[in-house]
Amino acid sequence: MFDHTKDNNYRKLSQISFPPSYAPEASIQPKSALAPSNNNEVHNNDTMLPISPALAPSNSNNNSNVHNKESIVFNVKSYGAVGNGVADDTQAIKMAWDAACLVDSAVVLLPSHQSFMIQSTIFTGPCKPGLTLQIDGTLMPPDGPKSWAKGISKKQWLVFYRLNGMSMQGSGLVDGRGEKWWALPCKPHNKGANKKSPPGPCDSPVAIRFFMSSNITVRGIKIKNSPQFHFRFDGCHDVHIEYININSPALSPNTDGIHIENSNNVKIYNSLVSNGDDCVSIGAGSFNIEIRNITCGPSHGISIGSLGMRNSQACVSNITVKDSEIKHSDNGLRIKTWQGGFGGVSKVTFNNIRMDTVRNPLIIDQYYCNTKNCPNQTSAVYISNIVYANIKGTYDVRSPPMHLACSDYLPCTNLTFSDVELYPAQGQRILNPFCWNAYGSLKTLTIPPVFCLVEGDPDSLPSNDINRC
To answer: Of the residues 67, 259, 300, 403, which is catalytic?
Structure first.
C-alpha cells in the first residue's frame, strides 16, 4: 500500500486539488473489468495484465462499470484511506484524485463494503479526458456542524470545479448525514413561537456541487439526507443525469434534489426523488433542460424559480418535463417569481404527467414571498408560452388544482391547456381553478374547467419589459 507518511507532498495538499508532482502507482485495466477476479488478473485482448493487490477492487460484483475503454484505476485505499467511516480519509481521496487527473480514462475508486469520511473539499480541473469517480462504497461528511473543520465554509461539502468530461457513478451511497443540520434552531421548522431566527449563522452545506463544468455524467448514484441541496449545477453545460436515487425525509428543510442555475443542455432521466423540498428546481440563466421519467415525491414538486429576487434579472427558456409522476407533494409543476424582478420564462412544456394526491398540481405564482413583508412592485418576470398537456390524476382538496396568479403589471400570456384532468383525492367536491391576469387557450375541455383563463392576449403589454432576456 502507498505509504503517505514517506511522501512530503502528502502534508502539503490543500483542500483545493493541485496537479501532483509525483508519478502515481496504479493498475491498467479495462473499466468494464472493475469487477474482481479471483486471481487479481484481468484479460485484455488475451493478454494478462497484473493488478497490484493494493489497487485491485474489493471482492464485490458491485464494482462493475459501463465503460469498455482501457483505464487506470486509482484505488483510494492504496493512498492511505482507512474506509471505516470514522478516520478522516480526505487527504487519501485527494491524492488519488490528483494522480488520476493527469491520466486519460482514469478511475478514482471508492471500493464497496467500506465507508469513507471526507471533509469539505474542492476537486479542481481541468483533468485529462474520461475521468470517472466510481463510488461503490459509502461516502460521507463529518457528522454535523460541530464536527465541521474550523475555518472551512459550511455552505458546501464536495465541489467539482472546471471539469470537462467527468463521470460520477457507482453502486454505492453518498450519505449527507443531514440530521444534525436540520435540527439547528434557526431552521424554519424549528423556530419558536415568535417565528424569528435566533442569532448566529444558519449555513448548511450543499452535498455535491458542479461548478463551471461541462460534459458531466452522473449515473446510478444513491444519495440521501443532504444537509441542504443534494446536487447543484452552477454555470455548467451538457450534463446528463440518469438512474439516480435521492432520498431524504419529507420534512427535511431546503433539501432540493437537483438544483440547476445558469446552466444549459441538462438532461435528467429515469430517476427517483423523495425529499423535503423541490425534486428539481431550475434557477435563473438556465435553458434547454429536459426532465423525463422522474418519480417525484413526497416533495415540493418540480419548480422553475424562484426568480427575480431583489429586483434581479432572470431568464429561463426551453424547459421540458414529461412522462413523469408527482405524488403526495405540496406542489406539482410550479413557476414562481418575485415581484420587482425582470426577464422572462418562456417555451416551457409539461407533458404526460401523472399527479397523485398533490396539493397544488399546477401553479404559477408571480407574487412569491417567503416573508410577511413583501411590498407590491410594478416590474415582473414575464411568463409566456407555457404548455400543460396530458396531465391527469388527483389533488389534495386543501387547495384548488390550478392556481394561476400572474402580475398586475405584466400578465402571463399564451398559457395552453389540453387533456388536463384533475380530480379530488377525497370526496366529491371539485374545486374551481384560480386565475388572475392569466391569458391563454383551452385546446380541450379541462377537468375542472379553467373558465377563469382569459382567451387571447392582453390589450397591451409594456414592451420594455418583455424583451429583456
So the answer is: 300
Contacts of 98 (CB under 8 A, 6+ apart): 13, 17, 18, 19, 20
- Nearest in space to 422 (alpha carbons), one of 395, 443, 445, 389: 395
What's the pTM value of the predicted model, to 2 decimals? 0.85
Q: How far is CA 138 from CA 67, 155, 173, 230, in A?
A: 21, 21, 5, 15
**Assigned C-alpha cell, 42:** 484481468
155-183, pLDDT tens digit by residue?
A: 999 999 999 999 999 999 999 999 999 99
| Under 8 Å between Cβ of 57 and 114 | no
Cell of 312: 434581479
Are 401 and 359 in contact by the 8 Å Cβ rule? The answer is no
Q: Does the annotation count 4 as an active-site position?
A: no
Beta carbons of 111 and 80 less than 8 angstroms apart: no
| Main-chain phi, psi angles of 122, to 5 degrees | -110, 120
Structure confidence at residue 373 (pLDDT): 82
Q: How far apart are CA 359 and CA 375, in angstroms?
A: 26
Q: How far apart are CA 223 and CA 266, in angstroms?
A: 19
